[in-house]
Design a protein that fits this description.
Strand content: under 5%
Distance between the termini: 28 Å
Number of helices: 10
CATH topology: Hypothetical protein af1432
Order of helices and strands: HHHHHHHHHH
Structural class: mainly alpha
Number of domains: 1
Number of strands: 0
Shape: globular
């Protein structure tokens, strides 16, 4: 499946513009992480783009979110490695299963950090990603009350793929800054 087909599929299932922006941000971050790790950039980007494809179908209920995604993506012939990463980015829906591959860790931490970066941008007067600095992200990471729904433990899974928080934040921020117009930030 190419990007155009994936974007069409995403928009078929996701109507909320902010969720589409989150998917685009996740796509950019996963592409950048793949590039740093020497992995297949298109494949990893696809995981980022499609990871929340069932979020509206499941009403974002974490006990079932990603279960419907599996059937949607299998029907579309998506690679099993991508399906597994998408499925396990929400371990809550799959008790007893744990992330174990670089792609799985990258997707979970990458899609999660997009929320922290977006929230950080939105506290700036201009609400622009260009104003955000890596230091601001790492500082906000320590503030549990800031963007409290962002799971910091999942972001820290970046260490399992060889990045410390500062480097990972920089990769993710730069990736999102590269598509800031698409994100409206």
């Amino acid at each position: 499946m190419n990007r155009e087909q994936a974007l069409y599929l995403l928009k078929k299932h996701i109507k909320n513009e902010n969720m589409i922006k989150h998917s685009l941000a996740s796509e950019a971050v996963l592409r950048a992480v793949a590039a740093k790790l020497g992995e297949d950039e298109d494949k990893w980007a696809l995981a980022g783009l499609l990871h929340d494809i069932d979020v509206e179908i499941t009403n974002a209920d974490l006990s079932v979110h990603t279960k419907k995604a599996v059937s949607i993506l299998k029907e579309e012939g998506i690679d099993q490695e991508l399906i597994d990463a998408i499925r396990l980015h929400n371990e809550l829906a799959h008790p007893g299963e744990k992330r174990s591959t670089n792609l799985q860790y990258a997707l979970a931490s990458g899609e999660t950090i997009t929320g922290l970066i977006t929230a950080t941008a939105l506290v700036y007067p201009d609400k622009k990603l260009s104003s955000v600095k890596v230091k601001s992200i790492t500082k906000r990471m320590k503030e549990k009350a800031f963007a409290r729904t962002v799971n910091r433990d999942i972001i820290m899974e970046c260490e399992k793929i060889g990045f410390d928080l500062t480097e990972f934040s920089g990769i993710a921020l730069q990736a999102m800054q590269g598509i800031s117009d698409d994100l409206g930030l």
